[in-house]
Amino acid sequence: MIDLCYQNNKACVFSAADWETLRKQYRIVGSFLGSTQVTPALPLVLLPEEVCLLVNKQLARIIHYPHLQDLPTEHDISEYSAIQNHLLQAEQDIYKENRKCDLEKIIDKIVEGKMKKSNATTNVKTREEILEEELNKSCEVTNETMVWPILYESVKSTQGTPTEVPLAEILQQTTPTKCAVYADLWEKGYYITPGLKFGGDFLVYSGDPAIFHAIFIIRCIEEPSSNNHTSEIVTFGRLGTSVKKRAVLASLINGSVMYITLNWLET
């Protein structure tokens, strides 16, 4: 059973092992909240529809740690600063050593170039001085540029006993139609991610999104019997064609998920 940590109205995964299980075994992608400058990192936040699927299939439970909402104390801030400084110093040392190995392979050429540029052999710095100078120029690692390692510790070990969150709390963030559409697509073997950037609710992939492009843009229609403006449907269909994906309208009718694919034909 995977624990989904519910904080600030988001269901998150902090364990790398759980993230791997969700991705490889259950085709649950989620979105990374953390970042090491340019590299996504844990925690992973899940869509409400992903959470509903996992809970309904008894693959996960939603838990809440009240102490995670506590503001950091002066001791916490001091401890964090000490860890950051330790990591920064270690990274500076490692980077400088690696850079030194690279420079030593070409230092003779650098020295020769500096001597030619000065047009003299006197008052030229020694090989060791030039090496140190080059190291100092290219080995500046700061708090802003350092790469944080992915460190994590089980939340259970530090935050006491959690309380279980009812699924109804998550259902407030979505709709029965979206949950049904997501579950139906998942049962068909697809990978699903948010589709907002393409004007839909979901993007659907035939394989892992790290390897495959999306093939469908899904827009959920909550009230299929209501009048949907023609211009919106036309725009959505043209959008799908322009990004080389099938635009699909999905609705929940009498307990079954129904799909309509929009095709744009040039005349």
Question: Could you describe the 3D structure shown?
Answer:
- With 267 residues, this protein is α+β, with helices and mostly antiparallel strands.
- It has three domains: 77 residues, MutS, DNA mismatch repair protein, domain I (3-Layer(aba) Sandwich), CATH 3.40.1170.20; 65 residues, no CATH class; 93 residues, 3-Layer(aba) Sandwich (Trna Endonuclease, Chain: A, domain 1), CATH 3.40.1350.10.
- The chain has eight helices and eleven strands.
- The strands form two sheets. The protein has a six-stranded mixed sheet with strand order 3-4-2-1-5-6. A five-stranded mixed sheet has the order 7-8-9-10-11.
- Helix 2 packs across helix 7 and helix 3 crosses helix 5.
- The longest helix has 31 residues.
- The chain is elongated and about 90 Å long.
- The mean pLDDT is 85.
Number of domains: 3
Can you tell me the CATH topology of the largest domain? Trna Endonuclease, Chain: A, domain 1
Label the structural class. Answer: alpha+beta
Mean pLDDT: 85
Gap from first CA to last CA: 54 Å
Number of strands: 11
Tertiary shape: elongated
Counted by DSSP, the helix tally is: 8
Briefly, what CATH class of the largest domain?
A: Alpha Beta
Structure summarized in a few sentences:
With 267 residues, the protein is of the alpha+beta class. The protein has helices at residues 16-26, 48-56, 74-104, 107-118, 127-138, 167-171, 176-187, 230-242, and strands at 2-7, 10-13, 31-36, 39-46, 60-64, 163-164, 191-194, 202-205, 214-220, 246-253, 256-262.
